[in-house]
Model the fold of this input.
Amino acid sequence: MKQTHANKYLIQRIGGELRQCVSSTGHTPRILNIGAAKTIYIEDDLSSDGCVYVADRIDVDDCTVTHPHIRECWKCSVESMRPVNSQQYDFAIANWVLEHVPDLSKAAGEMYRILKPSGKLITAVPNPASPEFLFARLTPLWIHKMIRGQNHDEDETYHTYHTCYAYDSIKQLLEIFKQAGFREIEIKYFPTIESYVSRFPFLNFPGKLYDKIISSLKIKPLMGHVCILFEKPST
Done:
């Protein structure tokens, strides 16, 4: 599967934040890539865009990779990031991670802990109220793998893990992070049906048409992907 609009926007947004950080502070920003797996497309895209940064990575599986901008790679859960020191990072990325976390309150607290004051978290998540994710919640994991084509994805950009859906709505997710201390800076919705049916040529046109219609009508509840930018207050 190709990168979705939400993936592209996440990278674009963090790239802009990195450039602004370098311009205003003069120091090299530090990023924690949460749930990084073995993929490096985010780091590669940021590097290709000329961004200055150093990145550490965590995942419940081994996420060790070699990359000029990557330093430490730890195996641990976002709910308990014990190897990660407090207030170490200017930015954190959680790209398609939160839907797999059983205890979001613990995860939000840990992400708040590792960020510096004024640090920012950008996350891409599914909208559990959208039709495709209502379907996903009622179907077994093997169906998700078949639709996404995980075993045929050579660049390993996408992975299919068990989803917990510990939040019932985007509103509930925002409230969990608010209770952890974060404040919401930006939230953007993206249609996603086309990306999920892209492996099936006969569904491409209906998928594109559906996405175009709900985008033009700005029907957010039907848009399956969401990017959220949170900030840890400075005081």
Notes: The beta strands are 30-34, 54-59, 70-75, 89-95, 115-126, 183-190, 225-231.
